[in-house]
Each structure stands twice: as C-alpha cells, then as structure tokens.
Amino acid sequence: MMNLSRWKVTLVAIATVLGLLFTLPNLLPASALAALPGFMPKKVLALGLDLQGGSSLLLEVDTNALMAERLTNMVEDVRTTLRNANINFTDLGQQSGGITVRITDPNQVTEAQNALRRILAVPLAGAAGGAEVTVATAPDQRLRLAFVPEAFDAEAARAVEQSIEIVRRRIDQLGTKEPDIARQGKNRIFVQVPGESDPERLKNLIGQTAKLSFQMVDDSVSPAEAAAGRLPPGDELLPYATATDGAPLLVKRHQVVTGEMLTSASPGFDQQTGRAEVNFRFNGIGTKRFGDVTLANVGKRFAIVLDQKIISAPVIEGPIQGGSGRITGNFTPESANDLSVLLRAGALPAPLKIEEQRTVGAELGADAVRAGAVSAFVGIGAVAVFMVAIYGLLFGGVSLIGLVVNGLMIIGVMSFTGATLTLPGIAGLILTLAVAVDANVLIYERMRDELRAGRSLISAMDAGFGRAFGTIMDANITHLLSALILFQFGSGPVKGFAWTLSIGVLTTVFSAVLVTQVLLAWWFHTTRPKTLPIA
C-alpha cells in the first residue's frame, strides 16, 4: 500500500490542480477574472441571502381565487353553449361552490345535459376537466355543475408548480443570480433572492398575476346606468389602473385576445411624445383574431386590461392585421420594463399572497462573511496547532497539506456546480475541515499500535492505512447519509449546510487517505527512515 503508484500520484495531482483552478476565480477581482483566457474556469461561488443581503418571501397560491376564476369561466361556457343550442334558460350563476342554471322548457333538459357534458369533456376557457353535471330533484328543471374535488386538487397542485416556474422566469429576467425558489407544503412557495436591494419591486413583480386581455368596450349603456349596476349579461365594469385616467368602463367579458397569445414584449418609447410604452407581438392565432376583431369594429373602442384593471382604451382607427402593437399609458421606463418582464414570463394561474417577508441588508451580509472567514481561520489554526503538537511537524504538516487540498476541492466543486454558499454552509465547511483530520488521527494511531506490536516501519504504515480505512469509510458513510437526509427534507439554510457537508465527506476521504498516503510514501522512499517520528 505504501508503494508510490503512478496512478495515485497522477490522481492526486489532477485533483489538486483542478481544485486550485476552480477555486482561483473566487480569489480574483472582477477585472482580473475577465482577463483570464477562455479555457480557464470563471464560475465563482455564489453567496446566499445571509452573506450578501437580499430579500426572501413566503408566498401562498390563492386556490380559492383559482376556484372562483374557474367557476366564472364555466358560467360563460355554459351561457355560450346553451345559446348556441337554442336552449332557453334562466337563473344562471354560481351557488355553493358550483353553478346552477334553470332550463325553461322541461323538454330541453336532457338536450341541455348532453350539450353541457360535451363541452366539459374537453376544458374550455380554463374550466378544468373532471367537472360533472347533475340534475337536481327540484321540479323546476335545474342543472348543477360542479368540480370533482380530486380533479380540482390536481388542478391546484399544477397551479403551484406552474407558479414556481413563472416566478423563476420573472426573477431570471431581472438578471438576479442564484435565486432559491422552492415549494413548501401544499400551496406555498419560498423565494430567496440574494442581492435584491428593492424588496417592494420584487413583491410587485412576483405578486402581480399579469393576466392581459383585450376586450371590447360596450358603449350601448350610459355611464350612469353602468354605475348604478344595470349591466347587460356578459358585461363587466372595470376601473382604470390609474384613477386619473377616467371613470370605470363597461366592457364585454369575452376576451378577444389574451396574454397567452403573445410571442414577445419589450419596453420602448413613443417616437412623437417620448413617453415609455410596451411593444408586443401576437402568435398566429392571436394575429388572426386581433385582425378580424379590429376589421369588424373600426371606430369602436377596445380595452387593454391587466389584472382586471384597464391600462388604456384606444379607438380602433383601422384594421390591425400585422400581429404587433403597443400599449401606452402612464408608464415610467422602469414600469414599462417590469410589465414587459411580466408579459414575457407569462401570467400566474392564480394570485399569490405574501405570507412573510424578510430583508437582509448588504452590510449585515458583509459582517456575516467576515465573521465566517474569521471563524474558519481560527478553526483551521486550532486544528494545525493540535496536529503539529501531537504528531510532529512532518506527520502533522502532511495532514495540513491534505486539509488544504480538501478545502480547495470543496470550494472548487461548489463553484463548478453553481452551489450557493450560506452562513450555515460556512459552518458545514468548518465542521468538515475539523472532522477531516479524524481520519489522519485514526491512521496515525493505528501506526503507533502496530509499531508497539513490533511490526516493521513499512508494515506499520501499511497497516495504518489498510486497517483504519474500514473505520474511516463507516464514519463518513454515516455522515453522508445524514447530510443527504438533511438535503432531502430541509430547506433554505439547512440545504446549504447539507450540500457543503455532502461534498466535504467525499473530498475528505480522498484527501485524508489518498493525498496523505502519496505524501508519506514519497517521504519514505526518499529518506528511508529508521524510525517514524510519531513512534
């Protein structure tokens, strides 16, 4: 075992060089990092929220609002279906978590049932599959539509997963590095954005549903009648996003085009007024619909609606068939950019409620970095003093070289994998380095025992590595399993600690056993000692 094998020397050299190369970018200033050759690694270790400051939010997906929206969409589907089938009905509306409608003609009840079952077999306008149609026993020909609970639970779970992806896309487009976005519980999302200095902007960007629609304005009803609540079926009264833009407008509920049909959105400026605006482009379906509607409604107004608030309501001066347009309003350059980000990332399937908010200042994060660095150096220094005092300068020094290689490999692997270093992660790093010398202690003490038993130097050194290896593996496998359990079931800081600990366990076995063995084998074959310094 103490043979100076070529493969061992090569493996140790490669691991040390790679660890150094991937750690080096973390030690260089930005100007020096940019000047490195193209083949050199340039990934740096990302710092977590507690080390560089930032914001964290705990969000809850509003599944009640999701249910209300699905029921509203289903009401419109039922109204359209029954009208197209020439079935007379009254009293259509939501009731007790479902929809009820009264069929006027008893002879059309079965026909209505069949028509509604057909449209609910394939979801329309967001009405999830799994809805069932039941006929009440009342003699007034009422039908009731309701979601199967299991089907809606699956719909809510999909909404949470979709919300996570949309939140991630919105944050990524801000250029923020290493956001931590994870699901917590049944319908909660934990968001951690290191380096974000404006938590209010983050809340507005994440929390806004961003459902964009184009709806025709209904000018057939006077503003006084609309304000009094006398609305025609299929209409709704919506306010402007800014109260100074005017009184609420009566618009058709039917959405001519929606934000899902957008292919691009970007901020810009009006060439005549210089005011900020948002330029957009539709896909093929949106282009055709928008072109047909504008062609048929020249001279009328259509409302651009974002989250049930009107941004603007321009007059259609002519057919718009090119598939592109612009949204004007009281935008600032920043708000125009934020709206573009929201539209590109897509609309949330349900509103998000902010349950908890925390902000860590940059100065507090810098203090944590300094405290972590000091504790790391103190810990390593204490380990160095102990090893040199107990095992001498040679064997203690070899252990410290292995410790340095171990640290380089941990930082290098974390930089290469894009891991985020948190304050608990620093604790895991210090713990790993402190525990790493345990393997050397086991090996050295085994050598001492073999020497006391009368074994030769080479036999004692071989036995030290060979017989201690099983104990070292048992201990580190236990550590690794514990770290994996923490990583699987923990969140946030706990995961950071577990990830650092997992990497450290693997590198510790390599450095404490292989690196130490190569160095001591080189020393033994070079000096041919008569006694071991630790005897």
Provide the gyration radius in Å.
Answer: 34 Å
How far apart the termini lie comes to: 20 Å
Q: Per DSSP, what share of the residues sits in E-state strands of 2 or more residues?
A: 15-25%
Secondary structure category:
alpha+beta
Unreliable spans = 122-137
* Averaged pLDDT: 82
**Percent of residues in helices:** 40-55%
> What is the tally of beta strands?
19
Main β sheet profile: 4 strands, antiparallel
Oligomer: single chain
What is the tally of helical segments?
14
Widest β-sheet, arrangement of strands? 7-8-2-18
General form: elongated
Explain what this protein looks like in three dimensions.
This protein has 535 residues and is α+β, with helices and mostly antiparallel strands. The chain has helices spanning 6-23, 30-34, 49-52, 63-84, 109-121, 149-172, 199-207, 223-227, 284-296, 333-345, 362-417, 423-452, 457-489, 493-527; strands spanning 46-47, 54-61, 89-95, 98-103, 131-135, 142-147, 180-184, 188-194, 212-216, 235-238, 249-252, 257-258, 262-269, 276-282, 302-306, 309-312, 324-328, 352-360, 420-421. Strands 7-8-2-18 form a 4-stranded antiparallel β-sheet. A 4-stranded antiparallel β-sheet has the order 3-4-6-5. The chain has a 4-stranded antiparallel β-sheet with strand order 12-9-15-16. α13 packs antiparallel against α14 (493-527). The model is unreliable at 122-137 (pLDDT under 50).
Give the helices and strands, then pairings.
Layout: H1 6-23, H2 30-34, E1 46-47, H3 49-52, E2 54-61, H4 63-84, E3 89-95, E4 98-103, H5 109-121, E5 131-135, E6 142-147, H6 149-172, E7 180-184, E8 188-194, H7 199-207, E9 212-216, H8 223-227, E10 235-238, E11 249-252, E12 257-258, E13 262-269, E14 276-282, H9 284-296, E15 302-306, E16 309-312, E17 324-328, H10 333-345, E18 352-360, H11 362-417, E19 420-421, H12 423-452, H13 457-489, H14 493-527
Parallel strand pairs: 1-19
Antiparallel strand pairs: 2-8, 2-18, 3-4, 4-6, 5-6, 7-8, 9-12, 9-15, 10-11, 13-14, 14-17, 15-16
Helix pairs in contact: 1-11, 4-5, 6-10, 11-12, 11-14, 12-13, 12-14, 13-14
